[in-house]
Amino acid sequence: MVSYDQAQELLSDLAKKLSLQNKETIPLAQACGRILAEDLFANSPRPEADISAMDGYAFCCADITITDKHTGTIPLQDYIVAGDQPLPLWKGTAATILTGARLPAGADCVIARERTQLKDDLLSLNLVDIAPGKNIRRLGEEFIAGTHLLNAGQKLDWRHLVLLASQKVQELSVYKPLTVGIIANGAEFSHSAQDCRTELNTLLLGSMLENLGIQTINSVVRSDSKHDLKKAILDMVEQSDILLTTGGISVGKTDHVLPVLKSLGANGLFRRVKIRPGKPFTVMQLGTKPVFCLPGNTGAAAICTQFFIIPFLLSVLTRKTQSTTSDTLSGISNFSLMPPTDTTCFVPVTLLQKGNDRVLSLVPSQGASDILCFSQSAGILRIPEGHPLNAGDWCHARPF
């Protein structure tokens, strides 16, 4: 049996050693939610030229005719819109220019339309509004060609797609999605069982993982047969990169998952973890494929997935070590809890605003099989072994 921290270290080392992902090239429009497989750099500067920052008039400050100490005039000649390649300004004239349009050669200032008066193609303006460089976005002002834009391992969303579109990227290399096989087992799930139970964990685990962009395949072995379980595992090995099993890992006569895996040549990374709930949680390797063996109790399976499996999968997907804590739900505990000296405990909590304080409150739970507590809570608080939680302590919970 290993501690919580030891389990995390072993999983981190395993994630670094795995090479699960093949690459594929896809259209940019299909890349949202995918994991970038290469570093990307700017093909061109942004802006690609000096452009106008607003609708107004472009001119050379030196060409303004001063009419009195406050105002000046300049005749209006051209009209420039975004997409034009404007000719140089006629000497001593201004041009109407729209936002984003290229600045014509010879212009060094843009003045907002509402700051001027126009009569008979003669533009009148206030001298205080005139300054070289005003309201102009310069070439490369945001970034220059060759700028490092995105790292390999980045999960892409709208922010990244629009950035790449600005660089005229049409296709890019991404990792193929991981496929995780999920196997639940137990005779209680047989439709012919006298006390037939609804199988919950494949839905639970599949929903959690698909939210990360991971493909899942589910299988339910509705018996306590070693033969049926072995066949399901072998079938799943062929279809998936990583396996999750749920149930059948304790020491009962019908707990066959670990013996069947060993008979197939699987090696153990660790057997059981000093946590509550979730103590039976075990990780093995079948060939090169990790096998996460989760407890059958739904609450314990959910917590093990949140604190061990999801950080592991994110590390594999992004090639970055994932933190197993989160500061998103931070507040003052209004309850105390004394964990066993050698056991890390997990409890569901809510977060409430009370005056100027953010308060974390315990959500009642009867045990590892509870599920209502998750719907009533905002996240899970981890209480490390040997660190009692006292009312008034500032603490951090992992949000759902």
Automatic annotation (TrEMBL):
Q: Where is the MoaB/Mog domain?
A: 181-316
The domain of life is Bacteria
The catalytic activity, as recorded, is: adenylyl-molybdopterin + molybdate = Mo-molybdopterin + AMP + H(+)
User: What are its cofactors?
Assistant: Mg(2+)
Q: Which UniProt keywords apply?
A: Magnesium, Metal-binding, Molybdenum, Molybdenum cofactor biosynthesis, Transferase
Enzyme class, broadest EC rank: transferase
Q: What is its EC number?
A: 2.10.1.1
One GO-annotated biological process of the protein: Mo-molybdopterin cofactor biosynthetic process
**Record carries keyword Lipid metabolism:** no
Alphabetized SMART domains for the sequence:
MoCF_biosynth (SM00852)
Q: Which GO terms describe its molecular function?
A: metal ion binding; molybdopterin molybdotransferase activity
List GO terms (cellular component aspect). Answer: cytosol
List the Gene3D superfamilies: MoaB/Mog-like domain, MoeA, C-terminal, domain IV, Molybdopterin biosynthesis moea protein, domain 2, Molybdopterin biosynthesis moea protein, domain 3
Q: Copy the pathway line from the protein's UniProt record.
A: Cofactor biosynthesis; molybdopterin biosynthesis
- Briefly state the protein's biological role: Catalyzes the insertion of molybdate into adenylated molybdopterin with the concomitant release of AMP.
Instruction: Name the family.
Output: Belongs to the MoeA family.
- Name of the molecule in the record: Molybdopterin molybdenumtransferase
Q: State the organism of origin.
A: Acetobacter syzygii
